[in-house]
Each structure stands twice: as C-alpha cells, then as structure tokens.
Amino acid sequence: QVQLVESGGGLVQAGGSLRLSCAASGRAFFSSSAMGWFRQPPGKEREFVAGISRSGRSLYHADSVKGRFTISRDNAKNTVYLQMNSLKPEDTAVYYCAARFTLSDSVDPLTSFDSWGQGTQVTVSS
Predict the structure, then answer these.
(1) Which of 24, 61, 67, 110 is the most buried (most CB within 10 A)?
(2) CA-to-CA distance for 114 and 100, rounded, in angstroms?
C-alpha cells in the first residue's frame, strides 16, 4: 500500500482558487497507479471529483466540477494535483486523495481505489 498526504486546503471566498496536492510514498507504486480526488461535504455522501490514469493520458472530471477543476500529476515528484478555480460554496467539503495500483492506463467512475489519504478541508465562503 502507498501512503498519501494531502495539502493545500483552506478557506477561500467564492470565485477564488486553490490547488490541492497529494504526495505519495513509493515512486514505483505511484507511477503504476491511477489517482483520484474525492470529496465529502458535511452530512453528504462521498463524491468522485476527478481521476487521472497512470500516464496522465486518461482524465475524468465530474460534471459538477467540469470546466472549473483540473486534475494533473507529476510522476517524477510522486504528486497529484487538483487545481480548483471559480470555487463555489457548494464545493465546501473534505477532499481526499486516492490511489489504485493497476496495469490499465485508464480511469473512470467505476475505478475502485484502495489507498486513501487523511483528507484536507476546503471551505468556500459566500
């Protein structure tokens, strides 16, 4: 299993931007893993926000964030990012990074992630 550590959360006004980072231990594991960002608003279910395949060629963004959020990865740095622009109060949630060791270079909402970070809080004020 890989250890994942998120950072970059915080308080921001509506319309602002944040960039979340997730650093993974184990370069071999990271470069062979699909990565994803999930979020869980208070009192609601966890939502798959964005995913990126091993190579970065396959991307997924949920409709709720499409055009505002962008997932990317740097395999040399063992890090995956979530750039969040035009933030809205409904984006307020704990954001989690996740990994899935896989031979496939694809990612979609059915990808079963099995390693998780501890989460970082994002709060968007109106």
Answers:
(1) 24
(2) 6
Would you call 27 helix, strand, or coil by DSSP? helix
Tell me the three state secondary structure of residue 31: helix
Q: Which residues contact 97 (CB under 8 A, 6 or more apart)?
A: 4, 6, 20, 22, 35, 36, 37, 80, 116, 117
d(CA 32, CA 38): 19
Cβ-based neighbours of 34, under 8 Å, separated by 6 or more: 51, 52, 53, 54, 99, 100, 102, 104, 106, 107, 111, 113
Q: How far apart are CA 120 and CA 126, in angstroms?
A: 20
Local confidence pLDDT in tens for the 126 residues of the chain = 679 999 999 999 999 999 999 999 977 889 899 999 999 999 999 999 999 999 999 999 999 999 999 999 999 999 999 999 999 999 999 999 999 999 999 999 989 999 999 999 999 999
The structure tokens listed for 56 are: 């970065």
